[in-house]
UniProtKB/TrEMBL annotation:
Membrane-spanning parts: 21-41, 61-80, 92-110, 116-137, 149-172, 192-214, 226-249, 255-275, 282-301, 307-328, 340-359, 389-409
Protein name, per record: NADH-ubiquinone oxidoreductase chain 4
Cellular component per GO, a single term: mitochondrial membrane
Catalytic reaction list: a ubiquinone + NADH + 5 H(+)(in) = a ubiquinol + NAD(+) + 4 H(+)(out)
Gene name linked to the record: ND4
EC number in record: 7.1.1.2
Localization terms from the record: Mitochondrion membrane
Native species: Proteus anguinus
Top-level taxonomy: Eukaryota, Metazoa, Chordata, Craniata, Vertebrata
Keyword Transit peptide: no
Keyword hit for Transmembrane helix: yes
Key words, A-Z: Electron transport, Membrane, Mitochondrion, NAD, Respiratory chain, Translocase, Transmembrane, Transmembrane helix, Transport, Ubiquinone
UniProt xrefs under InterPro entries: NADH4_N (IPR000260), NADH_Q_OxRdtase_chainM/4 (IPR010227), NADH_UbQ_OxRdtase (IPR003918), ND/Mrp_TM (IPR001750)
Domain of life: Eukaryota
């Protein structure tokens, strides 16, 4: 674990001293080297968490998220190359440095053994993400999107900080290991503390109703910002809910019922919103809210199957949504528009790119035997055991997901080809490689899904 963190830290001098002609190549090679080394974290000989040092632990829930974090850094650099290559040298180095700082904060967040250290890393991710959105965003509304992102996150995080300080004062420890063993629990009078802890993570997921910052941030962010928001930063909320849910004692479980119902209802509503979107990036962003609604419901019911399905869906959605945003960016670079109808008929002009579109969309709609399907089915079974009425909502969610995914595929790839698309440049080798390293893990995880199932 430490060698991954130290290697990521050593990318900072590499970025500073690399000649400009080798800057992108050096950082991509270093990022992939760290990602390959991080694959060793998926090997867990025992079910107990592995203590790296006083401040860091790795277990079967955090290790897949750590690997996903390391895997996406070189992909974000690859995807951003064309967009950032025209910037001055200092800005190119700053952009890559922001991505490295973001990975360092995420590694600390996913491996923290104390909730206070997790909170500090959780908040630290805000700074580089905000800089990426507001400085390198594509549209004039990027400052407004950055304000939404900043104030929604901070408003949700202040109650979490107050709750953690009060919990530390009353119990004397914020150790995640002690909480999982049941040595540190809240008393029934501390229901508000649990609620305060939950609010920050529900905003980050985001839960329907506090989700308005996400579409704005996705639409205005550059490609790397959209990738890291959808693939990793949303998972911080799910990871935090899993950690804090161990504080929920049996007498307080009824408190989570409204959030479970709201999460499922929100998943249906955002799925319906996706069906009427004309902006491709907004469609993919709202689909993330829909998928994360299932994750919120699965984690709050606190069953082994629920946690397994939530972990499976988080990792699968991370790879799939990142691939979809990359494809949306490839289309944007050729059409200079995010409007769906401006991209129709792309299959006739860019047939190989249409293959990547097909594979990514089939994974997004949970086609068998993808891990998206295993995650959604596991969540459906666990929710059905909790309440039989949930089968209607989860069934509607899967049906609506298939409908808007097929709508997105058909609108972008089929139909008459507009004139402006007939002169589009074919995909470069870099772009094919970028899509390959997105789709290949999705295919390989079908063969061994227990690597990312949380060990339950």
């Amino acid at each position: 674990m430490l060698k991954i963190f130290v290697s990521t830290t050593m990318m900072i001098p590499l970025i500073m001293i690399s000649p400009m002609k080798w800057l992108w190549s050096n950082t991509v090679v270093a990022g992939f080297s760290i990602a390959i080394v991080s694959l060793a974290l998926l090997n867990h000989p025992t079910e107990t968490p592995m203590k790296v040092n006083q401040w860091m632990i790795v277990d079967q829930i955090s290790s897949p998220l750590l690997v996903l974090t390391c895997w996406l850094l070189p992909l974000m650099i690859l995807a951003s190359q064309k967009h950032i290559k025209t910037n001055p040298a200092t800005r190119q180095r700053t952009y890559i440095l922001m991505l490295v700082f973001l990975q360092m904060a995420l590694i600390i967040a996913f491996s923290a053994s104390e909730l206070m250290l997790f909170y500090i890393a959780f908040e630290t991710t805000l700074i580089p993400t905000l800089v990426i959105i507001t400085r390198w965003g594509n549209q004039m509304e990027r400052l407004n999107a950055g304000h939404y992102f900043l104030f929604y996150t901070l408003a949700g995080s202040f109650p979490l900080l107050a709750a953690l300080l009060l919990m530390n004062a009353s119990t004397g420890s914020l150790s995640i290991l002690l909480m999982e063993m049941g040595a540190t629990t809240l008393s029934p009078i501390d229901e508000l503390l649990w609620l305060a802890c939950l609010v920050a993570f529900l905003v980050k997921m985001p839960l329907y109703g506090v989700h308005l910052w996400l579409p704005k941030a996705h639409v205005e962010a550059p490609i790397a910002g959209s990738m890291v928001l959808a693939a990793i930063l949303l998972k911080l909320g799910g990871y935090g809910i899993i950690r804090v849910s161990f504080l929920l004692i049996s007498s307080m479980k009824e408190m989570s019922y409204p959030f479970i119902i709201l999460a499922l209802w929100g998943a249906v509503m955002t799925g319906l919103i996706c069906m009427r979107q004309t902006d491709l990036k907004a469609l993919i962003a709202y689909s993330s809210v829909s998928h994360m609604g299932l994750v919120v419901a699965a984690t709050l019911i606190q069953t082994p199957w629920g946690l397994m399905g939530a972990t499976l869906l988080m990792i699968s959605h991370g790879l799939t949504s990142s691939a979809l945003f990359c494809l949306a960016n490839l289309n944007y670079e050729r059409t200079h528009s995010r409007t769906l109808i401006m991209m129709r008929g792309a299959q006739a002009v860019l047939p190989i790119l249409a293959v990547w579109w097909l594979l990514a969309n089939l994974s997004n709609m949970a086609l068998p035997p993808t891990t998206n399907l295993w995650g959604e089915l596991t969540i459906m079974v666990s929710l059905f055991n909790w309440s039989k009425w949930t089968i209607m909502m989860t069934g509607a969610i899967m049906l609506i997901t298939a409908m808007y995914t097929l709508h997105m595929l058909q609108t972008t790839q089929r139909g008459p080809t507009p004139l402006h698309l007939k002169q589009a440049l074919p995909p470069h080798t870099r772009e094919h490689y970028l899509m390959l390293v997105h789709i290949l893990p999705i295919i390989l995880l079908m063969l061994k899904p227990e690597l990312i199932s949380g060990g339950t």
